[in-house]
Predict the structure of ABC transporter ATP-binding protein.
Amino acid sequence: MGNIQVKNIGKAYKLYSSRWKRLIEWFVPGMVNLHQQKWILQDINFTIHRGESVGILGINGAGKSTLLKMIVGTTKPTTGYVKTSGRIAALLELGMGFHPDFTGRQNVYMAGQLLGLTAHELSHLMPVIEEFSEIGDYIDLPIRVYSSGMQVRLAFSVATAIRPDILIVDEALAVGDTRFQQKCYKRINDFKSLGTTILFVTHDLGTIYNLCDRAIYIKDARLQAIGDVKSVSAEYEKDIKGVSLDVKSIACNVERINNILDEDFLIKAKLKPSLEQEESSNIFSEDSPIYIEIECLCKGDVVLSDPHIGFQIRDIKNNIMYETNTACLKRKPKNFGHKICASFKLVNNLCKGEYSISFGLANEELGNGEFSVILLDQVSPIIFSIYREHDFKWAGFANMRAK
C-alpha cells in the first residue's frame, strides 16, 4: 500500500481553430483530422515506494498539476498508465471542489465520501475536523462566504482527518496563514513518520529540502531530472535563477533629476555561496555565507557623481529581514562612469525558508541613510531559499549563535 508507478504517461489536448472543425470531427470520428495536438506531458516514468516523500519541481505551466491529476485519477492520460495502491487523499485545487452554496459541514460530508469515508465515520470525525480547521461558527455557513484561507483550512482538515496511504498536496497551503501552515506541516511530518507516501508540489525549495527524500523536475512537458533533492534542486534553480531586469528611473526629487527621468538603468546581480563560484545560486544552507555581486549600468549620457548601491531582503510574508547600502557601510562602490559595481559578504543567520532580495541605486549621500536622489528602489528581485542540512539546533527568524 502506498506505492505509485507512472509508466510512459503523456497528456495531450486537441486544439481547434474553430468550433465547426470540432463539430465536424465529432460527427465523423477517425475519418478526418482537423485539430492540432498540444502535449502537456510526454514520456514520464518513475516509481515511488511506500513511505517516500517526493517533491515535484517545475515552473508554472510545466505540467505538475496535470501529472498529479492523472495520479489521482481525475484526468486520464493520453498515453501510458498509472498504478497506485491504497487510499489517496489529495488537495489539488482550492477548496477540493466544495459547493459554494452548501455549508462547510455539508461539504465535509460530500468531500469525505468522495475520499472513501462513510457517513458514520465522518460523524465521528467531524469534531476533529472542526477543531483542526479552526473556522468556528463558519462551519455552518455557506462556503461562498469563506476566505480562500478558510477553504484551505477546511479542505486540509477533511483530507487528512484519517491518515491516507498516499497524500498529494499541490501548493494548496500557500494561501494559508503561517500558523496554520505550521500545523499542516506537522501533520504531514507525522504521516511521513507513520509510512504515508507524500507527493508535494511547491515553489519553496526550503520546503522541498526539509520535507522530501527525493525530487522530480519537469521541464518543457518532460521529466528533466529525478533523484536526490540537492542535485535535482540545483538543476531546477539554474533555470529559475534571477535575471537582469530593465526598469525606468524612479525619482524622489523630480526637480533635481529632470534631465535623466527618461534614461534607463540596468542592474545585474549574482548571489553565490563562495567567491570561487562563477554562476549565481538561489539555494544556500544555513550557516553558509552569501556573497552578493552587483553591477549597475547607466545608459545614455548619465554620469553619477556620488553613487551608492544597496539591497533589501524580505521574507515570504514581506517582512524586511535586513537592508543596507554602501553609504551606511562607509564604503564607496567602484565607479567606472557608466558602470557602478559593489560586492557584499553576508554572514547568513537566516532561518530556513524562502526570501527575496531586491536592489537600489542612489546618488549624493546626505548622511543618516538619506540621499539627494534615489534612482532605483527595490528592483530586480531575486528569490532564494535557505535550507537546513544539520540537526536541529535553533529556531526563530535569525540565529543569534548562543554559546
In short: The chain has a mean pLDDT of 84. The radius of gyration is 26 Å. The longest strand covers residues 370-387. Residues 25 and 31 are 8 Å apart (CA to CA).
